[in-house]
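Could you help me review a protein record that somebody else here produced? This is what I was given.
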Amino acid sequence: MLSFPEFSASVEPVLVRHGCDATGDCHGGGIRGTLALSPPGAKDERFDFDQSVRQVTVAARDDSPLLTEPLALGAGGTPHSFKPFSSTADPDYQAIRRWIMNGAVR
């Protein structure tokens, strides 16, 4: 089980900081993939949590799209139009990973 309070405190701020919830072709208005996020002017953290949980692969947590898609290809990422994390050492990448890993032990 993944923690909503931990998501709200550590993952949602990463998504907002990197503009993942922006309108247009990102995960807000012009959704192109499977991850939809609430727009900046109408944040709904519960919706964002529910959507983000769907991007977690329980059997292989490090292969979760929420981790691999924003990660640089050279660092083990998968195709995605925006790559804010150049390595797995990025603090924001680590915040998302920690949330996923902590959920695995609950």
Summary: The chain is about 40% helix and 0% strand.
